[in-house]
Design goal:
By secondary structure, the chain is an alpha+beta fold. It is built from six helices and six strands. It folds into two domains: 123 residues, CAC2371-like domains (S-adenosyl-L-methionine-dependent methyltransferases); 55 residues, no CATH class. A hairpin with a 5-residue loop joins strand 5 and strand 6.
Length: 215
Amino acid sequence: MDIIDIKSAVVTIDAMGCQKKIAGLIVSHEADYLLALKANHKNLYKQVKSLFSGVDKGNTQICLDTYSQNVHAHGRIETRTVDCISADLVASKNDWQNLQTIVRVRYNAVCAKTGEHSSQTRYFLTSLPPSARRIGGVIKSHWSIEGTLHWSLDVIFEEDKSKAKKNNSQVNLSILRKTALSILLPNKQGRMSLKKMMFRAALEQDYLEMVLFGM
């Protein structure tokens, strides 16, 4: 974060990055954060779950905003519900710089073919104001980027199979893969896969120049 401009951006991080120092660093760069909260913060996680349990039991006045959306995707009908409560309700609020809102996202899905039900609940800490619709959009963007990036690195570049370990080789190769991906994606046309694009670029000089320089 010290070498990129994140001013006015919203930085989203999984539970591993849900740390007070990271939140403070993001705020110091004049950006907002949205951090996934899990049981690695045992007391805070327990308190947050208890607060939202109270909302479900009728204490709806502490819920500042809520937003629901039905999504049809991957053979499922999914309802996503985002609830926001004030960070003032948690005891450790002041330990997290600029913490404003505690968020719960519930996913309830029904398989269109089998009728099988599934559900999932996630919690987040954010410096954003309690706008459930906006925060829901930020969370959705995070998971779409996460899924697309990780899938591409694993399936196309076979990152998980890499045995490189010496010195900084893992980091260097990761940078090269992501750089290659950032070049390929904007030039993707039609139904040609990224693997086929790379294969064609390896065989045809004109196509390689088009991918690299947009010629």
